[in-house]
């Protein structure tokens, strides 16, 4: 039997696979085999809906974000193009209205 990956949602190792998806019977989470290969390649981040983000993707802001240390507010629905994935808590490096910022992927959705 091949080694199955642990569930990224709950961490249990009782997963099984179909032709294109892995399934976790403990929490009901399912993810594609191709997502597993992307995660093994290097830095990745997940958006608010669990979709894997990669360098160069475009994202949309899902809620108004106040920028600490300035009066700038990034409005909900703002499209951000050409993101870069970085390590750390604020894992997206991007430019918004000409300002270079680091944002959290949990407040984004893939466009």
UniProtKB/TrEMBL annotation:
> Which Gene3D superfamilies does the record associate with it?
2.20.25.10, SH3 Domains
Q: Which residues form the Protein YjdM N-terminal domain?
A: 4-32
SUPFAM superfamilies tied to this protein: Prokaryotic SH3-related domain, Zinc beta-ribbon
What is stated as this protein's family in its record?
A: Belongs to the YjdM family.
Protein name listed in UniProt: Alkylphosphonate utilization protein
The record, for InterPro entries, names: YjdM (IPR004624), YjdM_C (IPR013988), YjdM_N (IPR013987)
Q: Which residues form the Protein YjdM C-terminal domain?
A: 46-111
Protein species of origin: Ignatzschineria ureiclastica
Q: Which domain of life is it from?
A: Bacteria
């Amino acid at each position: 039997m091949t080694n199955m990956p642990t569930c990224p949602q709950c961490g249990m190792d009782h997963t099984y696979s179909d032709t294109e998806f892995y399934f976790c019977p403990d929490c009901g989470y399912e993810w594609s085999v191709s997502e597993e290969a992307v995660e093994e390649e290097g830095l990745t981040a997940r958006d608010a809906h669990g979709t894997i983000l990669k360098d160069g993707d475009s994202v949309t802001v899902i809620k108004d974000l106040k920028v600490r240390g300035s009066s700038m507010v990034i409005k909900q629905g703002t499209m951000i193009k050409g993101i870069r994935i970085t390590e750390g808590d604020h894992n997206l490096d991007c430019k918004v209205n000409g300002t270079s910022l680091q944002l959290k992927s949990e407040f984004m959705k893939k466009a």
